[in-house]
Amino acid sequence: MADRTSSSITIKAAKADIMAVIADLEAYPEWASGIREFTVQETGPDGRALRGRLTFDGGPFSDTVGLAYTWDGDDRVSWELVEKGTVVTGLHGTYALAEAGGGTEVTYELAVDVRVPMIGMVKRKGEKRIIDSALKGLKRRAER
Q1: pTM of the predicted model, to two decimals?
Q2: Are 35 and 28 in contact (CB under 8 A)?
Q3: Average per-residue pLDDT in the chain?
Q4: Which DSSP symbol is given to 27?
């Protein structure tokens, strides 16, 4: 899973406020298109998810997967696939937040592997669509 796709957006909100939106995983269906359900299965001492199950509808593919999360304060969160779905066989993602002139720059990086053979360019285009949609939804949610 060496190839990763990433994109960034500047959000007019503090890092802590944006990370609070990101950390509220069970609310993702309200603002992240394609996410049907998220269930937190285990939390850490800070109340943030350590493990969860994500169900998504991604156009031609729908799946449910298990994810493990690693949090670095309000600076970064990463997640890894720990329970494969019927379609998704590998997944790694991160949100990295950095202060940027009156706002916060949020960079979302994603790599997804699927059982269905897919040309790299098509796979990256799909990842880019997921990332851009998530960043726009995050911006709307955090700036409201």
Answers
A1: 0.90
A2: yes
A3: 90
A4: G
